[in-house]
Amino acid sequence: MATTITHRNVNIVTLAAGETIAGQCRPGDIALVQEGDGWWTNFVGDDGAVDSYDAPFGSYNEALWAAKAAAEFGGGLEE
Questions:
Q1: CA–CA separation, 29 vs 38, rounded Å?
Q2: pLDDT, tens digit, for every residue of 29-45?
Q3: Strand-pair partners of 12
Q4: Rounded to whole angstroms, how far apart are CA atoms 59 and 56?
């Protein structure tokens, strides 16, 4: 089951195995997803498009801190 924390009015959603970003997140959310190579920090855009950093983090805590930092500065990646 996905868990959500809110930081600076941004939802940071940690997905459980088998859950999808599209099924659990809304525009403006940041999704943390564990894959074989680490924890990915994904940003859900206004149009539902998903963007992420170019490499995963080695731990959940690193990904969470990156998500919190992104929330501090407006929610993530800029185009």
A1: 20
A2: 999 999 999 999 999 99
A3: 5, 30
A4: 9
